[in-house]
Each structure stands twice: as structure tokens, then as C-alpha cells.
Amino acid sequence: DGGITQSPKYLFRKEGQNVTLSCEQNLNHDAMYWYRQDPGQGLRLIYYSQIVNDFQKGDIAEGYSVSREKKESFPLTVTSAQKNPTAFYLCASERGQGNSPLHFGNGTRLTVT
Amino acid sequence: AQSVAQPEDQVNVAEGNPLTVKCTYSVSGNPYLFWYVQYPNRGLQFLLKYITGDNLVKGSYGFEAEFNKSQTSFHLKKPSALVSDSALYFCAVRDKAAGNKLTFGGGTRVLVKP
């Protein structure tokens, strides 16, 4: 079945450590997105990529980094510069931009202590 | 700047009763509107979308939504709610005039009681 796989489902890290969240899709979608979800705040866009080797900052990119070396993969690194990294992270992909809906992975819950 | 408002944090409804989840939006151009549903610890699932055409859009699981341009609203409805409809619902808008950015509302939690 085609879809988006995020791993791991739960991730625990100590403060000051960088951590990388995995996102893989086999939908052959060009565009991929990373969102952060906090209670009561909906989804906020971190980074997005429309094609391989290109990506743009979203609304809350500070403290995060991404790469898009392959069409299928869009990993997100949460760096130690992110002041409040504990959150639920969602990856999504889209066939093209415009009227296509986003397809979401099942998320990674990151807890930093 | 475009925005989406979901004025109700939570909606409670008895099973079998009609369900409505409200959404209003603000864009500079013509909107593309979407509804998604999220179950606990899962990603969002697409329910339906309005791009153009008929103002009443039918989607998955018996849901529908009505696009009202004059009121800039896109309320989600279901004639007869099920306990399994209990979830978090998100409205989202995309404005091609604003670079196709997708903006989500804050979400509305729906609780359907047996």
C-alpha cells in the first residue's frame, strides 16, 4: 500500500541533543511538508519541499533543519537551538500544489527532558 | 494574510443527532478549502474539499460541507452522528494568490455521546 511512514512513533531525548525524525513516502509525490502540532494550536508549518534538493522555511523554522536528497525522503532534524521541542511532529506529502489534499503520516511524538 | 477560524474548541452531540463543525476563512483570492479528521496519536485524514462548482460538497464517512462565499464559511456537517465520529477536526484553506500556502484552523474536538 502506498503511504507515508514516520519513524519512530515515540522519541525521547535529553535537552541539548540533536534528533532526526524520519519521513518516507512511496506515493511518488513531489511536495513534502513538516508540521508541528501542539495542544490547542492546530498545525504549524516548519519546512516544506516542492522538489528534490530544494526546500523552504515555513512559519516556525528556527531550531529545525531538513534535507531532500531523494524524492521519497524528507528527514527533519530538531536541533538543540529549538527552545521548546517537545511536540507531535507530522509529515505530509502532496502530488502537486493547489487542489490536491495532503497525505499525512501517523506522526512522531518527541519528548525532550 | 490568509486565516482560518474554528470558533468552537469542542462540540458535544448525542449519537444520531446532526453534527455541525464551524469554519470561517479569510483569503485575498479564491479559496481552496479542506476538512481533515484526526484520531488520537494519528495523522490527519482527508475528508473533503471545495475547489469550485457546487457549493455543497460530499466527502468520506457521510460528511458534507457547504461553501458560503458571502459568509466566508465552510461548515462541516453530518446528518446523523456516530460515536466513532468522535475525533479532532481541522479546517484548512489554500489561496493560490498567496503562493498556495495551506493554513489550518486550530481544530475542533467532537464528542459524540451514546
What is the β-strand count of chain B?
12
Percent of residues of chain B in helical segments? under 10%
Number of distinct helices of chain B: 0
Q: Tally the helices of chain A: what do you get? A: 0
Helix content of chain A: under 10%
Shape of chain B: globular
| Main sheet properties of chain A | 7 strands, mixed
Query: pLDDT below 50 for ≥5 consecutive residues: which ranges of chain B?
Result: none
Estimate the global geometry of chain A from the Cα principal axes.
globular
- Give the N-to-C terminal Cα separation of chain A: 36 Å
Query: In total, how many beta strands of chain A?
Result: 11
Give the uncertain stretches of chain A in residue-range form. Answer: none
Sum up the structure in keywords:
heterodimer, A: mainly beta, 7-stranded mixed beta sheet, B: 114 residues, 6-stranded mixed beta sheet, 4-stranded antiparallel beta sheet, globular
Question: How would you explain this protein's 3D organization?
Answer:
The complex is a heterodimer of chains A (113) and B (114). In chain A, 36% of the residues are buried. Chain A has strands at 4-7, 10-13, 19-25, 31-37, 43-51, 54-57, 64-66, 76-78, 87-94, 103-104, 108-112. The model of chain A has no long low-confidence stretch (mean pLDDT 93). In chain A, strand 5 (43-51) and strand 6 form a beta hairpin. With 113 residues, chain A is mainly beta. Chain B is an all-beta fold. In chain B, the strands form 3 sheets. In chain B, strands 2, 5, 6, 10, 11 and 12 form a 6-stranded mixed sheet that branches. In chain B, strand 10 (87-95) and strand 11 form a beta hairpin. The termini of chain B are far apart. The model of chain B has no long low-confidence stretch (mean pLDDT 94). At the A-B interface, strand 9 and strand 10 of A face strand 5 and strand 6 of B.
Briefly summarize what is shown.
The complex is a heterodimer of chains A (113) and B (114). With 113 residues, chain A is mostly beta strands. Chain A has strands at 4-7, 10-13, 19-25, 31-37, 43-51, 54-57, 64-66, 76-78, 87-94, 103-104, 108-112.
